[in-house]
Amino acid sequence: MHRSLVLYSEPADPDHFRDYYVNKHLPLVMKWPGLLAWRYSFDVAAIEGEAPYFAVFEADFADAAAMHAARASPQGRRVAADVVNYATGGLVVIHYPVRDGIG
């Protein structure tokens, strides 16, 4: 599995971010081809001190090729173009292969 992780910094208008993200952006994300699972949170906390991020989003794909294909698709381009409508504080996008561990 391959994961895309988006870390959002504090936006200028947190209420607008939450409303737009849930009601307009996530419906676009759900149409990504090859998307296996997704999750998000606005309740980002640090173990110590203040969290450097306002929100987090994760998207899982079968592999890196599937993630890259989704991002390059017309729907993926719509998702990317929509970010300016709510993420006024900026964001960091990273991706990586997920490896299972044993406790």
TrEMBL record:
Kindly list the GO molecular function terms attached to this UniProt entry.
oxidoreductase activity
Q: Which InterPro entries does UniProt cross-reference here?
A: Dimeric_a/b-barrel, EthD_dom
> What Gene3D superfamilies does the record tag this protein with?
3.30.70.100
Signal peptide residues are: none
Per the UniProt record, one Pfam family is EthD
Q: Where is the EthD domain?
A: 10-88
List, alphabetically, the PANTHER family matched: BLR8190 PROTEIN
- Indicate what this protein is called per its UniProt record: Ethyl tert-butyl ether degradation protein EthD
From which source organism is this entry?
Answer: Streptomyces paromomycinus
